[in-house]
Amino acid sequence: MSADGSGRRPTRRRPRLLPYLLIAPTALALLLVLGYPLVDMVVLAFQDMTREQLFSGAAPPWAGLEQFRRVLGDGFFWTVVARTVVFTAVCVALTVLCGLFTARLMHRASPWVRATIAGMLVTVWAMPVMVAASVFRWLFDADYGVVNWLLSRLPGVDLARHNWFTDPWQGFAVIVAVVVWGSLPFAAITLRAALAQVPPELEESAVLDGARPFQVLRHVVLPTIRPVLVMVTTLSAIWDFGVFNQIWLMRGGQPEREYYLLGVYSFIESFAVNRYSAGAAIALVTVVLLLAGSVVHLRQMFRTGEVE
Amino acid sequence: MRRRRSLGHDLLGLLVAAVIGFPVYWMVLTAFRPATEILRVPPEFWPGRPTFDNFARALRTETFWANVRSSTLIGLGTVVLSLAVGALAAFALARFRFVGRKAFVVVVLIVQTVPLTALIIPLYLLLNDVGMTDSLLGVVLTYLVFTLPFTVWMLRGFIAGVPIELEEAAMIDGCSRFGAFRRVVLPLLAPGIVATSVFALVQAWNEYVLVYVLLSSPQKQTVSIWLVSFQTSFGTDYGGLMAGATLTALPVVVFFLAVHRKIASGLTAGAVKG
């Protein structure tokens, strides 16, 4: 889409050096704040760093594979991994489904209804995570939360003074709600833009040929918006896998073990227990697991030609 | 294309909008409510007598203005630095083909997928080594981790959207390459730059974990930490908390509403074309 072959350009003088000079500051900055810490994290995972070395500045002793042996050999770690994967899957599925539903609805509704939904979505998109978590904590408050009161209106339900966080399953339901609420706007707005690209003639002719609504969605709409759908799914997965803030805040900065996801686990091992190396080992495993997701993301980016 | 629109879709749409917007409505409503009305069962869904008591209480907390100042400084610092550095790389990616370009793009894309929580430990140790914990500059530098990649990526998209012929015409008319960039590309790029800046500003304003770990003196901490401390120090003062939440969200929402179209198109540029 942009330049093709710099030899054709008016300036022929320093075309070979200039781009490198331009990317140098970014490359340097990324190397410093990202490259070095990433390498350091890997190194740290093979050492045994505690509070002692942090304050004395002494080099931490090598531990070889000890951290990994301990972390990977701990049944609790695998519980957390499984929990994180399930949590991510649920959040992503709900985000994409709700996003698709909202986008379809915006596509069909009158302009003023569409504008109303869009306004709400953008407002929610802008909400800081910490604000969202605070608000949901209030909505789901045991004594005066509006959700308990509303649900108690349903016949046969009595949730007066019900504490959602006593049972981790219910607690996670609330956390999933915050996460999905927060990521819905990006999904819905992006998918809505994609839906606008679906040629209406295609849908109409499918309907004329006798396709039912679900078949239109499955065979006409979804294939057209597939690239965007894949992008939204992978990006949501990457974000949800690293969820930390919502859990941290909703559990008042002291999450119980039942509420650990990989991000929380790694953080607590490092900064609450001061076993920095164990935390680094957990973080390393997290990054490796995430790389799988990134591969899908990158392949999609390359396939759509965006990178070229 | 005029597709058939039924009343059903509109009603369903309004219901969805109401559900999505309800938490925000409830936040603002609670923020303006006197304490006696907040803790009432059954809850009242319409505004009664609004009061500014909760806001007054939130604003009176000791460190509020210091924290706003600190958040603003960090936000502006992050934006200026990532724009200054990122715009150059974005220009290179949009306008040149060079060996290693693809590799650079891959790095920029991969970097965006590394979760921040994984980097906290080494970033903390790095700043600890150079004595920059509890320093706003240190925070700004670490924020480059997540603002720089998307600044490069979004600006690249916006620059690619400016036809190269304009630049070439300016150069034929005697501009240097830099002059052509400054006089032709930059003005056309202004909306994209504003959108990118706002997005970076919002990210910096909202970030919590890194500042929580890095900044220890209460005066230097940011509003997101202030908001969290609200919940512990005030117990369940939901009126004050919702007032604080409203104050924290307000600047972000205003900025965001102004530029969201550009952000949406910048984040998804290209993917839709597929």
CATH topology description of chain A: MetI-like fold
Level of helix content of chain A? over 70%
CATH classification class of the largest domain in chain B:
Mainly Alpha
Beta-strand share of residues of chain A: under 5%
Order of helices and strands of chain B: HHHHHHHHHHHH
Number of helical stretches of at least 4 residues of chain A: 13
| Quaternary structure annotation | heterodimer
**Could you state the CATH homologous superfamily of chain A?**
MetI-like
Domain ABC transmembrane type-1 (chain A): 81-297
Membrane topology (chain A): Multi-pass membrane protein
Subcellular location (chain A): Cell membrane
GO biological process, one term (chain A): transmembrane transport
Write a compact overview of the structure shown.
The complex is a heterodimer of chains A (308) and B (274). Chain A has 308 residues and is mainly alpha-helical.
Give a written overview of the molecule:
- The complex is a heterodimer of chains A (308) and B (274).
- Chain A has 308 residues and is an all-alpha fold.
- Chain A has one domain (38-55, 63-306): MetI-like fold.
- In chain A, 71% of the residues lie in helices and 0% in strands.
- Chain A has helices at residues 18-45, 51-56, 66-72, 75-108, 111-126, 129-139, 146-152, 168-195, 200-208, 213-241, 245-250, 262-272, 276-303.
- Chain B is mainly alpha-helical and 274 residues long.
- Chain B has two domains: 7-51, no CATH class; 56-268, MetI-like fold (Orthogonal Bundle), CATH 1.10.3720.
- Chain B has twelve helices and no strands.
- Chain B has helices at 7-31, 35-38, 53-60, 64-95, 101-111, 116-129, 136-160, 164-172, 177-206, 209-214, 223-233, 238-268.
- At the A-B interface, helix 1, helix 4, helix 5, helix 6 and helix 8 of A face helix 1, helix 4, helix 5, helix 6 and helix 7 of B.
